[in-house]
Amino acid sequence: MHDVVIRNAQLVDGLGDPPRHGSLAVAAGRIAAVGDDVGPGRQILDARELTLAPGIIDTHTHYDAQVTWDPGLTASSSLGVTTAIMGNCGFTIAPCRPGDRDLVMRNLTNVEGMSLDALRAGIRWEFETVPEYLAMIERRGIGLNLAAFVGHSSIRTFVMREDAPRRAARADEVDAMRTLVLEGVRAGATGFATSTAPAHNGHGGLPMPSRLADDAELLALTGALGDAARGMFMLTKGAQTTVDFLEGIAARNGRPVIVAALLHNNITPNAVFEDLDAIGAANTRGRRLFGAVSCCPLTMDFTLETPYPFEGLESWRPALGQQGEAFKRAIADPGFRNAIRAELAQPVTVRAFNGEWDKVMVAETALPHHRAFEGRSLAEISREERRDPLDVLLDLSLAENLRTAFAALLLNSDETAVARLLRHPHSLVSLSDAGAHLTLLNDAGFGLHLLGYWVRERGVLSLAEAVRKLTADAAAAFGITDRGRLAVGCAADLMLFDPATVARGPKRRVFDLPAGASRLAMPAIGLHGVWVNGEHVVDERGPITSAPLAGRLLREFAA
Fold it and tell me: What are phi and psi of 4, to 5 degrees?
């Protein structure tokens, strides 16, 4: 007698095979049978011809802080995700000395757009080392399956303290960091993650610590993966980091590399495809490289209290780390503004904001006499007022004490180009950033968007292809051998949905973070069920509040 039997479903196995009608049985948290007649079950569910697929594997999240106060992992848990990988870009909270906690939290408020009050109120500091952090997660329980990277910026801070974002590391410091990477990976971390992206700045406008690492440091730390003969290297790359260099790391250590964040930029439209083609060429030479792409347009809601879209600009540096009146004086300065205009006039390969003012909207004004600006682009307003759009943005913000809310479409706005990214044989669909930038965006429902928009509405991928990209491809990249497929013996991580309606719903702002901080939320549409290790955790109404924390901390990965 099986625990659960799901009958009359359209089965999409995750491997790319054509959908077929059938049933699936679950016993002891695993798939026990798949076929026309799978036998009796204690619980029988009629799927009514809905589609049953493996649960989504989200390979790019930032739940490292949130998991300590929200083991259910809102919002991914309600959006079809059954497994998440966190610690991407190297922005973790372990290891961390007690005396450095505030520094780590302040860095996250900037680079990941997190509320400092929420972090201070929410994080449970029941650990110091990476092994202790993993043990705490396992001890407290989690709602999803979870794997974690060892984060470069955290280990740099652990070893170098206040110097971490200020200078190159000495040889003895690099040795100490390498030991920490090795310790974390041997304890079950999925690998080592870092960032060289210029938009990644921490507290006070200083670069995130990983950006101070030279090539020798990166080679030494990634070498720990080779020593352990396990783990993958994940990097969010700046323009100065080449795919050739990353291929060299893969060759040197025999370990796979994930390259993020490969988003299409209208200013340099071929750059992302050149990177993906270079990744493909490396794979033909026997390396294992993956290009992390997104199926979502990169949109951000922001105010100049959190001006993340502009912080990757070198010309914005005089305003980085400034607060209050000092910040207002900085952005009012004509020289500051002219420097931004000059920089935006120069196309570069990697930059979040490129001066496409027609894609920046005034979402909400703070003063009643500015209401006429709402819903209009800065390009439109600038034409009407015969002023530069940068001046429109900065002057309006200053007039409203930085409370004006804007919505910007930054990257991945060319749908023809995004379709090419999704079809590319060496792309890995991810980049949800779930758990971070909570006030700016919510792409935790990226998988539902892929299935609804890119499959049903655009026909860019078949249903089977899209499910494969969300499940088996992600599992294979990370060496997760027993998830991402509808196959006997695999973990019963399942998603039941209606392909005719599946989508992510409209965004709304909620205030359910610690200290009452806000985040953007998006409901699931057309999602009828989610099972994690055989436990029913979501139904057609949403999360099942009585469901147990059924997730597992993933510590073992195929070589």
Answer: -135, 140
Domains of the chain, with CATH numbers? 55-297+413-480 (3.20.20.140), 307-408 (no CATH)
Distance CA 252, CA 218 (A): 12
Identify the sign of the CA torsion 170, 171, 176, 179. Answer: positive
Residues of the chain with pLDDT under 70: 349-350
Q: What is the pLDDT of residues 420-472, one digit of tens each?
A: 999 999 999 999 999 998 877 899 999 999 999 999 999 999 999 999 999 99
* Secondary structure of residue 327 in the 3-state scheme: helix
pLDDT of residue 133: 98
- Separation between Cα atoms, residue 225 and residue 222, nearest integer Å: 6
Spatial distance between the Cα atoms of 551 and 70, rounded to a whole number of angstroms: 13
Rg (CA), the chain: 23
Q: Give CA–CA dist 551/19, Å, rounded.
A: 27
Helices 152-160, 101-111: inter-axial angle, 10-degree rounding: 150
| Pair of tokens at residue 20 | 């077929």
Q: How many CB atoms lie within 10 A of CB 160?
A: 20
User: What's the pLDDT score for residue 349?
Assistant: 66
If we measure between CA atoms, which residue out of 80, 231, 188, 62 comes closest to residue 552?
188
Q: How far apart are CA 388 and CA 395, in angstroms?
A: 11
The residues, any chain, with a CB within 8 Å of residue 15's CB and separated by 6 or more, are 468, 472, 485
Confidence (pLDDT) at 9? 98
Q: Quote the tokens at residue 244.
A: 């050739």
| Strand-strand pairing, 519-521 and 508-510 | antiparallel
Dist. CA 238–CA 434, nearest whole Å: 21
Q: How far apart (Å, rounded) are the C-alpha atoms in residues 190 and 479?
A: 9
Q: What is the 3-state secondary structure (H, E, C) of 422-435?
A: HHCCCEEECCCCEC
The pLDDT assigned to 131 comes to 98
- Torsional sign, CA 265, 271, 275, 281: positive
